[in-house]
Amino acid sequence: MTQSPRYTPLVQSLPATVPFVGPETAERASGHHFTARLGANENTFGPSPRAIAAMAAAAQDVWMYGDPENHDLRGALAAHHGVTPDHIVVGEGIDGLLGYLVRLVVEPGDAVVTSDGAYPTFNFHVAGFGGLLHKEPYIGNHEDPEALLARAAEVQPKLLYVANPDNPMGSHHPGTVIADMAARLPEGVLMVLDEAYIDLAPPGTEARIDADDPRVIRFRTFSKGYGMAGLRVGYAIAAPGLVSAFNKVRNHFGMGRIAQAGALAALADQDWLAHVRNEVATSRDRLTVIAHDNGLTPLPSATNFVTIDCGANGDFARAVVRELAARGIFIRMPFVAPHDRCIRVSCGPAALMDKFAAALPKALAAARG
Amino acid sequence: MTQSPRYTPLVQSLPATVPFVGPETAERASGHHFTARLGANENTFGPSPRAIAAMAAAAQDVWMYGDPENHDLRGALAAHHGVTPDHIVVGEGIDGLLGYLVRLVVEPGDAVVTSDGAYPTFNFHVAGFGGLLHKEPYIGNHEDPEALLARAAEVQPKLLYVANPDNPMGSHHPGTVIADMAARLPEGVLMVLDEAYIDLAPPGTEARIDADDPRVIRFRTFSKGYGMAGLRVGYAIAAPGLVSAFNKVRNHFGMGRIAQAGALAALADQDWLAHVRNEVATSRDRLTVIAHDNGLTPLPSATNFVTIDCGANGDFARAVVRELAARGIFIRMPFVAPHDRCIRVSCGPAALMDKFAAALPKALAAARG
């Protein structure tokens, strides 16, 4: 009998492994309960109390579908960014939007350029639509604009991915460097500018790019600075032609009622975002001190995490991650060498930092032992 | 200069029109405020109070990503249905899951069979991946199992879509008819059994199909009986091989924290579902009376809406929809002839039924005038 279902050849070629291990999965697998959840770059300072109230109120109305046009939220985002609602598409986190974007442009065999060790979910989508990833090494701890542009000139990719600030290294380029990249893109290359962490970056990190420029789409999220990773609201700013192309493929009713209400309230509370920014800065300083106290090298961070060079190889860093997990501390680390000499620790309130500070020396000793 | 971005040829061929007009869009376009929202088959009786409380509580924790494995929810659903968690995939509403399924199997040019006038979002996804839709007419007000099977034998589709109960007609087949269809599927055809409304259908509507049968995938939702359309939680029951194939393409962190918590609490409150079932039955009876009072013909319904034959053509029914909207009553109607002789009205509490009953005679008069 014919195999049912008859998957596409592309799907048959995709790996069956699941690269996305959540902290709950790690807890179940290890039997350890995490008392400090510092691995997913979640914002442990939480969302605006006004957003929490708005979500709780919206729960009463959740029998209604959310507005498929995301009218009010797009309007508020447009006002916030000084663009029109036609420049804004809202979707199920940056992850969901990246999936739609790749689907819009990538066919099997199409070239895509990114950095080796950059955001794996983007790579997941590219592979999932049959694109061919060309990965450029970082230059030190930074994505390498010149190398990315040179590779783009060589392989004429449909997409060129760059994150600013970068995950997993926490580094950033001044906005002028990114704007210069955009100006020098080869013809027909769309720059995917992932600004998930921009709300936590130093002044000047945001690139000045005309929202009508058809060569760039920039992605933002309510998951990081706004502290609502579990709400799943991201958005992109792009030229209206590209924004409307998303309507050809997106899940039109995909943004729920609570999600839209929470995002709208969070956006309106910029004081809370400023508060979070301060708390994150304090926590970054604390993580820097903790790293130094343990003879490790913290990297400068423009995000809500600090990447810490453990001074050895990937096996050692993996052992540190494992030993921290055994002590109830959930962190993660970069996937590829040479970055996998590092661990990556999310910011958090003092009590969480205390737990990390207490566990790290023991974890390091165990990893060395 | 080369056009940027370079869309795929398939995407270029897709229509730019947006077929998904939400009630908010209709309100904005018409300037009418809807005082009765009876067009989207939302459950106006609302979700379980326990689910509302769970969602409000989860709003506090929304800084955390939801578990990408949906472990607890899949476990509870498995227990509820007497299957294993490996038989369950959870996703962003049935809409989102249908998109993933189509992507898994449909390549440009692949045949897909459905009924003419059945769920348009399924068609949207099939067209969006380049599939060719073969549409069989309904037989009367029912999807036509024999015709669907004959067409499947002819065109060897990758997918055969059938909804039981049906939207937009509200009709249903006994579960035995659906199980018989499944047993007689041509080789290599996957039956997409959309059971969005099953929680509101009469006993015996649910088909007995082995969850390990690789020829069938059945879709369920928290949007209808459970009253949480704006939460975006659907799931599918299928053989483990097919369930795990979703992991190759799905948005792994797509199910948010509030969504998982709300669905879990709703599932645990089966008393509330029974309450809703009673309320819906009462409202169906009321809509039947209202239709008769106005000289119209209500169709029997196995859902939370009643489709009402207005006894004329599509132009007349469209006028009725328009005239009701002008009076603050939002309803919808089937898209295609001959079903577009009908209007479709969602069930609701007595106060909403009163509003509909008051507005309908005037709307009919205006439509006739």
From TrEMBL, chains A, B:
What PANTHER family does this protein's entry cite? HISTIDINOL-PHOSPHATE AMINOTRANSFERASE, HISTIDINOL-PHOSPHATE AMINOTRANSFERASE 2
* Xref: PROSITE patterns: AA_TRANSFER_CLASS_2 (PS00599)
Instruction: Please name the Pfam families in this protein's record.
Output: Aminotran_1_2 (PF00155)
Keyword Iron found = no
Show the CDD domains listed in the entry.
AAT_like
Its pathway? Amino-acid biosynthesis; L-histidine biosynthesis; L-histidine from 5-phospho-alpha-D-ribose 1-diphosphate: step 7/9
Gene3D superfamilies xrefs: Aspartate Aminotransferase, domain 1, Type I PLP-dependent aspartate aminotransferase-like (Major domain)
Keyword check for Glycoprotein: no
Q: Which organism is it from?
A: Gemmobacter caeni
Q: Which protein is depicted? A: histidinol-phosphate transaminase
Instruction: Name the reaction it catalyses.
Output: L-histidinol phosphate + 2-oxoglutarate = 3-(imidazol-4-yl)-2-oxopropyl phosphate + L-glutamate
State the similarity comment: Belongs to the class-II pyridoxal-phosphate-dependent aminotransferase family. Histidinol-phosphate aminotransferase subfamily.
GO terms (molecular function) for this protein are: histidinol-phosphate transaminase activity; pyridoxal phosphate binding
GO biological processes: L-histidine biosynthetic process
Q: Which InterPro entries match?
A: Aminotrans_II_pyridoxalP_BS, Aminotransferase_I/II_large, HistidinolP_aminotransfase, PyrdxlP-dep_Trfase, PyrdxlP-dep_Trfase_major, PyrdxlP-dep_Trfase_small
E.C. number, please?
2.6.1.9
